[in-house]
Amino acid sequence: MAVLGAYPPGLTCRPIEDSDWDGIIECLGRNFPTRPRSYWERAVARMEKRPVVPDLPKYGFVLDMSGRIVGVLLALYFLHHGQEGEEIRCNLSSWSVDPEYRAFAGKMVIAVLRKKNVTYINVSPAPGTEKVNEALGFRRYSEGQLGFFPLLASARRGYRVLEARADLPEMAMLSQGDQDILLQHAALDCLSVICVGEGRAFPFVFMTRRVFHGIVPCGQVIYCRSLEELSQCAGVLGRYLLRKGALLCVVDANGPVPGLIGRYFAGSGAKYFKGPKPPPLGDLTFTEVVIFGF
Predict the structure, then answer these.
(1) What are phi and psi of 133, to 5 degrees?
(2) Deepest in the core among 95, 127, 164, 269, taking most CB within 10 A?
(3) Rg (CA), the chain
(4) Spatial distance between the Cα atoms of 192 and 170, rounded to a whole number of angstroms
């Protein structure tokens, strides 16, 4: 009952303002003590590079106790121009509330989830929060992850990989939405590429990371239009990624993918959504994975 009750005197829930960042970083630091302040400062700088969605909060919500930030819920809103048209997504991230105000944390969640035309996603649920996600109306859309070796896939003759640039002629073979995804993620230090072959162009975005206790470099798939296209281009993509130091790749999946040789890890990196429709597998565009890193 306390979650839905009245605020104590001086406590308000409101959208994040640009002047809040010092207080937000301090609040996040109190509740995520293993993260250095520089981690959150970098995240803030990268959040500011994202395109703004009109009429929606730019950053999320805070609990403000008489001018002191005591709770934070970062909400990464973005417009996605996919093959089925335009949609609004929101990645809920970094929920942080000081212990004495946790009874009021639900105020921020309610404030975020009230938009019925938004697809909300949780790409890094905390361990043991499955029932909380379900109670809030979230459903699982990705059951695990596939680790695969793209070099082991056959490379189609005549296929080639080009790094995305605004002046690249092959960019005209893609939709405007795909062009924007490639260029905006390139600006966020991702590997944005086009695989061209058989008169078609396939957009892909990867982010370099390390797995197995930070030892093995790999390419996390941030964007592909479908796992079928990823499989179709895997061989030539593997040769490109090897030059970037990544032999292994990781992609969200609900089981083994034909043509991708590796191992499926059920339950690893499960992801949830609430709203009109789930994101396609292999689409982590503009999420905390890109903004905050691993």
Answers:
(1) -60, -45
(2) 164
(3) 20
(4) 13
